[in-house]
Amino acid sequence: MPSRAAPDRAAPVRPLPRSLDTLPGESLAGYVLRLAHRLELSPACLGLLTGLTTPGHPTLPNRHMLHLRPDIAAAFTHSTRLTESETGRLCLSAWHDRYPAVDLTYDQQSWRGRATAPPTARWIASGPTHYCPQCLTGDGSPVQHTHGGAWRATWRLGVVFACVEHRRLLRYTCPGCDRPANSTGPRPVTRSLGNGLLPGSGVRGLHPAQCRTILGTGRRGPLLCGTRLDHTGPARQPPSRQLLAVQNRLDDLLRPDRPEPTPVMGRPASPRDYFHDLRLLVGLLRLSWPEPADQAPPWIDTDLIDTTLDAEQAAARAGRSTQNHALHHGPHRIPRPTATCSPWPTTSSPPTARPPCGVPELCTGSLICGDRALRGSVACS
C-alpha cells in the first residue's frame, strides 16, 4: 500500500539579499508588491521566500491581511530584515484596540470553517480595496519613484472613504478595465486560479500601482489588466469641506497616538467604543428609515437613500439571496465603488455593476448621520 504523502512544509527562510523599509500606514499586500517589484519576483514567489506561503499552497491567504500567526510573522521578519513592530503594523490587527472589526477573535477557532465571517468583520474589505491615486504615486523620493507609494492598510476599513491629505474621495474601480481594482474577476475564471489577497500573484513584472484585476486566462496563466492606478489625474468631484471634516475626525480616532477618551453623546468613551456604537447606530438608522430623514444634514440626498433601500427590499421580494445586513455590514457594502455610490448601496448588484450615481457627499450618508448623532448634534432616543 503506497504511503500517504506528507503535508507541505515550508523550508526555513533565509534573509533576502535586498529588502525595503516599510512606508507609514502601509499594508502587508502593498509591501509585498513593492518588495517583489524591487527583487523582480512574483508576489507568490516572494511569499514562499518569506514564509507567508508554503510550496503546496502558494496563494497569499486573505487572513494574513488581518493577522500573521507568530511563526509566520517571525519568518517574515527574519527574511525581510524588518523589526517585529514593523511587521505587526502591516496587518490590520494593529488597530484591534481601536477598531472592533479587526479584533483577533476573527481568527479564533469558533469562527474557523464557518461560511460567514463574524459580524464586525463585515466592516473590512477583504477583497478589492479602495485607493488614492496620489498616495500610490509616492512622495517623489527615489525609492517611491521606482516602486510607488503605500497601499494603505486603513483603506480596507469601512470608515475610511476619503484621503484628507490629497482632498479627494478614494477610488474603487480601475479606469482601464472599469472593474474593482485588483479584483479576482468572474467566478469561472478565479475558481481555477484560486483566490487570495493578491490576484494573479504568480505574475511578475507589474508595477505595484498597476491593476491586477484578472480579465481571463491565457496559455501562461491569468491575464491581468495592468492599468496604472496612479495615473488617473485629479478628482473630478472633490469632496466637500463637511465630508473631509468627517473623515478627518474618523482618521483621528484611528490614530494610535490619539489621547483618549472621545465624547460620545456628551459622555467620554474610548475610540473602540465609539466605532462599536457607530456600527450599531448605522444599523438602527437603516432599520428605522425613513423616520431619521429629517435629522440628516441638509447636504445629504435622502431621496437617494430611499431609492437604495427600496432596491434592497425589491431584491428580497424577488427571492434573491439576501440577509439582514442592518447590524452586520458596514456603512457601504464591500465591494462597492466609493466615489459614485449611494449612502447605503444595495447588496443585490454584482461587484462589477455600476451603482446609482450621486454627488460625492452621498457615498457616506450612513456614516455621517451616525457620527453626527454620536457627537450629540441631533436628538436621539
Unreliable segments (pLDDT under 50, ≥5 consecutive)? 1-9, 113-117, 188-194, 321-363
Radius of gyration from the alpha-carbon trace, in angstroms: 21 Å
Shape: globular
Helix content: 25-40%
How would you characterize this protein structure?
Mean pLDDT is 77; it is low at 1-9, 113-117, 188-194 and 321-363. It contains twelve helices and six strands. A hairpin with a 4-residue loop joins strand 1 and strand 2 (168-169). The strands form three sheets. Strands 1-2 form a two-stranded antiparallel sheet. A two-stranded antiparallel ribbon has the order 3-4. It is mainly alpha-helical. It has helices at residues 28-39, 43-50, 63-66, 70-80, 84-88, 133-137, 142-147, 187-193, 241-254, 271-288, 302-317, 365-374, and strands at residues 162-163, 168-169, 214-218, 221-224, 262-264, 267-269.
In short:
It is built from twelve helices and six strands. The protein has 381 residues and is mainly alpha-helical.
Record keyword descriptors for this entry.
single chain; 381 residues; mainly alpha; 2 domains; two-stranded antiparallel sheet; 30% helix; disordered N terminus
